[in-house]
Amino acid sequence: MISAYVTIRSKKLNEDFCSSINKSAFAKVADLFYTQRDCRKKLSVRTPDILLLGLDLPDGYWVDFCTEIRKKYPAIKVLAITSYDEYTVFKNSLNSLTSGYISKDALPKVIVSAIHAVMEGNFFRYDKIVVPAEKDEPEPEWLKNVVRQMIGKIQNDDSHRETIEKLSMVIQATEKVRRTMIQNLITKEKYDTDDNWTDRYLKQLIENMLIKGSPNWEIAEVLNVSIETVRLYRMEFIRQLSGQNTMILAVRDGETIRLGRREQQLLRLIAAGYTNQEIADDILYVDIETVKTLRKNLILKFETKNTMTMVISALRKGLLNLEEIDDLLS
């Protein structure tokens, strides 16, 4: 049986990946780590067949760590766990230093397929943009025709490099159209088109699946929303169950300011580094003007000059914690 080490910064991701591997009957997780230091110590005692490695470990640059592993333990296969954005930045390093990469949001069957492929000596490429291709249902004929025409035109007219660049642009454009269509489906309901309806719609659907025990990746895939959206609503649901669904901020003697649900959501997302456009299009599925208005209201309520000082103030007052921010980014 294949032995694996899993090294990811996020506790939740570590648990998800370990569970998927251990259920495969093909590989077993021999150990898991949250830092390069701990992983390095264990490697000096026992080496696995494959190492699943996150790129954002807190105590070192992953490129240096991979280079070290290749020199000291050339037999170990390294499978990177990355986001699409990280892949676009580190593509060359990933190709040269690892045996492949998979998305942080990869389905269990993809994780197992990746280990199979890597152990057979193949380079495994996978990111969240190709998740729909993992479904078992065959593609409709009209879709095949569209893809054939598109690829045929590109390949006939362009060099190899231009082909790759244009296909990447097509993928990005298609993803943008998908997000726009989702937003329209969610917000332009026949009888109610306001942002409160969007919130109720997502909240109810996601909570129903959470109660059934569905993991984040499954909820995101079934509802066709981003993984960040699911994480945000899961976090709120857990807080609600524990009686922490209301956030009140005392600003001066005898006076308090209450933050609404949308303001609570936005505060967390701003702290996690998401832009107005990302929040509007990819996470909350609302109009960008709504996000801008909420952001201005938050700054006024916190009586700060900008969002950075607002986040610092929220952290100091205990209204935000680093664990919540990490959960949104993991």
How does this structure look, described?
There is one protein chain. The chain is an alpha/beta fold and 330 residues long. It has three domains: 133 residues, Response regulator (Rossmann fold); 47 residues, no CATH class; 135 residues, Winged helix-like DNA-binding domain superfamily/Winged helix DNA-binding domain (Arc Repressor Mutant, subunit A). The protein is 59% helix and 12% strand. It is built from 15 helices and eight strands. Strands 2-1-3-4-5-6 form a six-stranded parallel β-sheet, with helices on both faces. Strands 7-8 form a two-stranded antiparallel ribbon. About 5% of the residues have low confidence.
Give the gist of this structure:
It is built from 15 helices and eight strands. It has 330 residues and is of the alpha/beta class.
Specify the helix fraction band.
55-70%
Largest sheet, order of strands side by side? 2-1-3-4-5-6
CATH topology of the largest domain: Arc Repressor Mutant, subunit A
Structural class: alpha/beta
**Uncertain stretches:** 127-136, 189-193
Helix-strand blueprint:
Blueprint (H helix, E strand, L loop, with lengths): L1 E6 L3 H12 L4 E7 L2 H8 L6 E5 L7 H11 L4 E6 L1 H14 L2 E4 L4 H12 L4 E2 L15 H17 L2 H28 L7 H17 L4 H8 L3 H15 L5 E6 L2 E5 L1 H11 L4 H8 L4 H15 L4 H10 L5 H8 L1
Helix pairs in contact: 1-5, 8-10, 9-10, 10-15, 11-13, 12-13, 13-14
